[in-house]
């Protein structure tokens, strides 16, 4: 079963490089509606919890310290076929392999600092959205 929502973060690199506006514009132009939106900052602890699924991967510690290194923008987005269409919009994890015109190809410089997060399943979109947003923060 597929639902129509995904969760995203504009990561610290893209925020620091001034790309918040352009990236939100790309979301909107691709047909995603904003359901929830927040400018915030993760701590080492909350970034560690968010990425707990990657705890065994060699890059986990670097990922957690990068994701807590500066402010981020978190959002829940809505569109038909949201998970798959959003992964297509952001491009491959490694920006060097991301297709022309994708957000990571345009705004990311490396595999670790890759501009945006996108949920990989309906189940994770739900979990990740709940991590940042209460029911009365969604419209
Ligand atoms: P995804 O963000 O495209 O879903 P995942 O495999 O879920 O990619 O990895 C989560 C995040 O961990 C990536 O977005 C990236 O920031 C980081 N990451 C993934 N693979 C590597 C790696 O090989 N080296 C360093 N960081 C990585
Ligand atoms: Mg992932």
TrEMBL record:
Any Pfam family hit: NDK
SMART domains documented for this protein: NDK (SM00562)
Record-level GO cellular component terms: cytoplasm
Lineage: superkingdom: Bacteria
InterPro entries xref list: NDK-like_dom, NDK-like_dom_sf, Nucleoside_diP_kinase
This protein's record includes keyword Transferase: yes
Subcellular localization, as worded in the UniProt entry: Cytoplasm
Broad EC category: transferase
Needed co-factor(s): Mg(2+)
PROSITE patterns (UniProt xref): NDPK_LIKE
Principal location class: cytoplasm
Known EC number: 2.7.4.6
Positions that bind ATP: 11, 59, 87, 93, 104, 114
Active site: 117 (pros-phosphohistidine intermediate)
Catalytic activity reported: a 2'-deoxyribonucleoside 5'-diphosphate + ATP = a 2'-deoxyribonucleoside 5'-triphosphate + ADP; a ribonucleoside 5'-diphosphate + ATP = a ribonucleoside 5'-triphosphate + ADP
Keyword vocabulary terms for this entry: ATP-binding, Cytoplasm, Kinase, Magnesium, Metal-binding, Nucleotide metabolism, Nucleotide-binding, Phosphoprotein, Transferase
UniProt GO BP: CTP biosynthetic process; GTP biosynthetic process; UTP biosynthetic process
Family that this chain belongs to: Belongs to the NDK family.
Subunit and interaction comment: Homotetramer.
Role summary: Major role in the synthesis of nucleoside triphosphates other than ATP. The ATP gamma phosphate is transferred to the NDP beta phosphate via a ping-pong mechanism, using a phosphorylated active-site intermediate.
Protein name: Nucleoside diphosphate kinase
Source organism of this protein record: Pedobacter psychrodurus
């Amino acid at each position: 079963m597929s639902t129509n929502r995904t969760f995203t973060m504009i990561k610290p690199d893209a925020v620091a490089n001034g790309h918040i506006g352009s990236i939100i514009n790309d979301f909107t132009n691709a047909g995603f509606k904003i359901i929830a939106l927040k400018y915030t900052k993760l701590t080492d602890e909350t970034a560690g919890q968010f990425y707990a699924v990657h705890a065994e991967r060699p890059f986990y510690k670097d990922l957690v310290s990068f994701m807590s290194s500066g402010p981020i923008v978190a959002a829940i987005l809505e569109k038909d076929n949201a998970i798959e269409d959003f992964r297509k919009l952001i491009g491959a994890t490694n920006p060097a392999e991301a297709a022309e015109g994708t957000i990571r190809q345009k705004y990311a410089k490396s595999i670790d600092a890759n501009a945006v997060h996108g949920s990989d399943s309906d189940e994770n979109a739900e979990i990740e959205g709940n991590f940042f947003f209460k029911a009365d923060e969604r419209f």
